[in-house]
Amino acid sequence: MKKIGLYGGTFNPVHCGHLNLAFELMEKGGLDEVWWVPTYRSPLRMDDILAEPRLRYKMVELAVEEIPQFKVLDTEINMLQPAYTIDTVKEILEKHRDKQFYLLLADETIHSLMEWKDPLELVKLVPLLIGRRAGGKLPHFPEEIEAAIKKGMLETSMLDISATKVRERIRKRLYTAHLIPTKVLDFIYVNQLYFTV
Ligand code: ATP
Hints:
Bound molecules: adenosine-5'-triphosphate
Number of strands: 5
Largest sheet: 5 strands, parallel
Number of domains: 1
CATH topology: Rossmann fold
Helix content: 25-40%
């Protein structure tokens, strides 16, 4: 059975930190592929100012188009409203019964896990694969969730890149091609994204 990692995020814009995390979790977790799922908007970050979903989706497409193990799903951006991970996972599992899915996360995301919709059901549905971004101590969780986190924690390298930093460098007209694929950067320039916010 093919092993697929699901990797969700706002990807505003996608950067080399995301690509590195996806590669390391795929390789260390023994996955065959990673399917990227750009979100329409995160229910926990409703105030973020985001580039249009279609444009963020396109940027992920450009970033992964030459990587055969990566593909992009439009499941969430097509919902036209904030999506909960559990609902997306259920939909994907339903459509692809012949595959084994994993959920890819960075450790910092785990801090808000209990605020997600049905976290216990989620970890029962898909095993987690967690990479390091922030490092440091994690809070305590209910037993079954704690066990899923422990099982999925992998040692990955930390790249100090964030979408916030990328957007700030673009706004200040600073060199940014060391943090983000050039194709994505070209797209940002052509579409004049992030120059004002
Ligand atoms: P922002 O700076 O706007 O918060 P972000 O890059 O952290 O942006 P997302 O695009 O939502 O936000 O990130 C998707 C996922 O990738 C999240 O789980 C996030 O923690 C993880 N991630 C982002 N940057 C890195 C990085 N440099 N290394 C490892 N994981 C990362």
